[in-house]
Amino acid sequence: MAIKAVFFDIDGTLLNDVKSVQKSTQAAIKDLHRQGILVGVATGRGPGFINRFMENLELDFAVAYNGQYIFTRDRVLYTNPLPKSAVYRTIKYASGRKREISLGTATGLVGSNIINLGTSRFGQVISRVVPKSWAKMVQKTFKHAIRRFKPQRPADLLTIMKEPIYQVVLVATKDETNQLEKKFPQVTITRSSPYSADLITKGMSKLKGIKKVGQIFGFDINEVMAFGDSDNDLEMLSGVGIGVAMGNGSEEAKQTATYTTSSNNQDGIAKALAHYGLIHLGNESTFMSSDDNFNKVRDFHELMDGSLRDLPKAFDSHEASRRVNFKAEELVEFIYASQSSLDAFQEQVAALHQAIDQAVVKVSQKPATDDQMVGQVDALADLLYFTYGSFTLMGIDPKPIFDTVHEANIGKIFPDGKPHFDPVTHKILKPDQWREPEPAIKLELDRQIRKAQARQLQKEKSLKN
What we know:
The protein is α/β, with parallel strands linked by helices and about 475 residues long. About 50% of the residues lie in helices and about 10% in strands.
């Protein structure tokens, strides 16, 4: 199925380890936008943190607070505050155990200075440069210093909770997750950090948020590609059409995802988008066409064949015949799909043989060309033109269909980045998760039919008025 929307987790995914967006990712997002593919984030972060990425990357929408708060650059689409009783109980639980806690408001996380430090760029850098053997000592020192100069007061939290609260972040280890789930059965507990737990409304998640965005913007969950690295990404990675785990992600994320790419420091996002044919990763040693469909097919052949021809050259007679055979099979399949019975199919195949015989006579009467490449390219261009003409006469937009077929072909590449062939028949093998494109093509055609019917209905209403 053609991908219509791409979502990125932020920390460890959209951002590299120095909390910036790689240039390859920025270029990839622009490329997706040029193709009309929607781009957004799905994160445990709040709007205050996300806004700069919305503007700088021109993102279409954001699923914030693990699905609790959804917005675009100019409007809020959906909010789902936690029940006040749940927020109050969490504050009391945290204060009774002297646990740091932050409350997610419409502007961002407020409350714990320790949590704010841990999620800040400074805190993330410190966590990477401090030796692991010092970690506990440094953690205790920072906590002691912050609590001494600006301790967290439950009264402040009770004032904050008068606002709508969309997420509660509680300092808690991963081992405490089950205990928290028993203590707070009325909320969902998810994690994006080994040091804290995120509490949201029961039944909500990033995936549920993405589904809500799809209902508004007109795409199905199977038409979504999502990137993530943490525990709070697992449902999203397994529930969308294509889930991509970052190379730096958890083992659970990698096992859950459809595909694992390079890390957030090694162009992982761009490489995965190129792997699935959504963008083209060009370089100076190869040329790029202004025809993006050509570039996608070129990427496929580079993966399949290992090398490509950059200097134009005509096919020899053997390779030309091989390419014609591929096209002949598709022509026969086209005829087969067009007939209602086997007898009618056989009649049309006989007519095809007759048409070929007539074409042989007609072409043989033409003067021989001195330039073999010109003749081959002219014929191929005519075939391409006739194919677009057929789509035109059928009233079908071929672009999403082409993307669906291309994604299916790219899907034949195994996770090691290589094609695998049957040792006996030499036919290409298909990975276990490979899916036939026909169901996705059917869904796309149904969508185009519904859209055309709506246009026709609108025209009829306009004429009546």
